[in-house]
Amino acid sequence: MKTIILSACLLAGATCAMSAIADTSATVGTYVKDSAITTKVKAKLAAKHMSTLAKISVDTDKNGVVWLSGTAPTKDAKDLAGMITKDTDGVTAVHNNIVVE
């Protein structure tokens, strides 16, 4: 009887451990995807050579939604940052919270 209970406990423990490993790898994969999108957006903003775009922060969630924040000197600069972000691969939506100074 003790052997059956011990076997059941070991099996349950192994199942829990395997599900924890699966969850961790999904989180890491999601983080890599988010970072890749953020990096793409930042690179595209930098390619425009607008020093004003350097004051913009970019954050991406696991669903490809990007939040832009920071400051821009004009509405045109704010809109340009939003358009560049929207046209980036992997971006599903853009929340442009950039403040015009």
Give an overview in words:
The protein is of the alpha+beta class and 101 residues long. It has a domain at 31-100: Histidine-containing Protein, Chain: A (2-Layer Sandwich), CATH 3.30.1340. Helices cover 57% and strands 21% of the residues. The chain contains two helices and three strands, in the order αββαβ. The protein has helices at 2-47, 75-86, and strands at 56-60, 65-72, 93-100. It has a three-stranded mixed sheet with strand order 1-2-3. The longest helix is centred in the first third of the chain and has 46 residues, at 2-47. The protein is globular and about 30 Å long. Mean pLDDT is 76; it is low at 1-26.
> Would you tell me the overall average pLDDT?
76
Main β sheet profile:
3 strands, mixed
Portion in beta strands = 15-25%
At CATH level 2, the architecture of the domain at 31-100 is: 2-Layer Sandwich
| Secondary-structure element order, N to C | HEEHE
The count of strands amounts to: 3
Briefly note the structural class of the backbone. alpha+beta
